[in-house]
């Protein structure tokens, strides 16, 4: 069997990987998306089955008001003493040079929960991980923040002992473990003890094109850590034309047969044909994904990526892999027949609740709340873009009576970057109309002339569709679900990328989603009924974005 990277396509960043018996489990960051932390399991490293997210109740995670790309950063999943340990960070903001956050610990006997009430650890720095030493002691290893003017905001890696009996850290034990290299921005630490050495894996260089992973080691946990020679461990900085970019920030795992693999974040940029090669390597609309690379140890005991530091797109699966079957991610249909949202649906910051709507009986009903930039009360459910090219459609029943009541289909990166096609009320023509809006860095533009697409008075249902074609995407509508009308508006997909967001705000860590939303800014709770959601990946050559198409 062959591992093809990415193993988790779409926004699955900052992987932490652990093996329990013959099963591998990956935990990923979710930032402001709910539920917190995604989990996938595999017995062959090729096929990955989604599991219920662990942070699925407000007592474990409350992100109301968190900024874009705040929330869950770099969870750490480990297994020791017969149970799973999950350390996670909830970042509340990074304004004014201050990083406001709290690190938490929760445990569970089973990976599917239930997970214990959280233990608050500290706010020293994000990307915290728990190291279980072979003498039974445990340590929190973390990035260290520094707000002071004139100081680098990433102030090395610190280590603090954790008291299992008292369920708290020992602040008096906190000390600097490693300063990192001159590349700076050292973060994402994971500590391992292998063959008598303590190996410290850390990310550096930021999470863009300069991203890399480095390794240092020491004979003792309180000794001096020596940097791996001929590093970094993994990086794509010197391979700008390689299809995989940004690798780094990940975790190490050993197979039952003694083979080693490294789970890493990665991205796959694309660039418009008329864009110059200089300036950017492209736009990563699928966000930071998860790759797996094979690792071998050299004669001096240093880990090396098989094939070189750039990694490989295709990697041999473990020789003792147990093949498994998982659902195909190329297609997804939801008839909303169950009374809970299927795994893969997400909301912003808070769980799906009665205030937001209901699901079951063949429909998803959303109760209109705040706009798509609202951080406190929003009625939207969304799924990750898993492919560069796909169609997604849904049927909407909505009867607005005011122009601030809207319901429809959205492509969404964050509260600052999104677009959607929606039904609303046109008070100039006294009828329901369809329009398209795009938000670019909190500047919202309506893209169709007011009243240009009216909904027939006797039409109870409207179908919306988006067609995403790598660098461009568009919206269509239908009044019968069969005869589709093109709006003629093609939007630039780069606005939904990490790289576009990074030039405007520090929150550029997620990826594009497709979702369903209902807005009622009158706060009278106008409801929309959604049925027949469908997602279908298409071949890259199925339809090109013609140069003559109108682009906004």
Shape: globular
At the first level of CATH, the class of the largest domain is Mainly Beta
Any idea what the radius of gyration is?
24 Å
Largest sheet: 9 strands, mixed
CATH architectural category of the largest domain: 5 Propeller
Total domain units: 2
List the helices and strands and how they pair.
Blueprint: E1 2-4, E2 16-20, E3 23-28, E4 33-34, E5 38-42, E6 49-51, E7 71-80, E8 83-93, E9 100-108, E10 119-120, E11 129-132, E12 138-145, E13 154-163, E14 168-169, E15 175-178, E16 187-194, E17 197-204, E18 212-218, E19 226-227, E20 234-235, E21 245-254, E22 260-267, E23 289-297, E24 303-305, E25 314-316, E26 331-334, E27 347-348, E28 357-360, E29 363-367, E30 379-384, E31 389-398, E32 405-414, E33 417-426, E34 431-440, E35 443-446, E36 462-469, E37 472-478, E38 484-492, H1 498-502, E39 513-520, E40 527-537, E41 550-551
Parallel strand pairs: 38-41
Antiparallel strand pairs: 1-25, 2-3, 3-5, 4-27, 5-6, 7-8, 8-9, 9-10, 11-12, 12-13, 13-14, 13-15, 16-17, 17-18, 18-19, 18-20, 21-22, 22-23, 23-24, 26-40, 28-29, 29-40, 30-39, 31-36, 31-40, 32-33, 32-39, 33-34, 34-35, 36-37, 37-38
Q: What tags apply to this protein structure?
A:
552 residues; mainly beta; Tachylectin-2, Chain A; Jelly Rolls; 2 domains; nine-stranded mixed β-sheet; six-stranded antiparallel β-sheet; 1 helix; 1% helix; disordered C terminus; Glyco_hydro_beta-prop_sf; GH43_C2; ConA-like_dom_sf; hydrolase
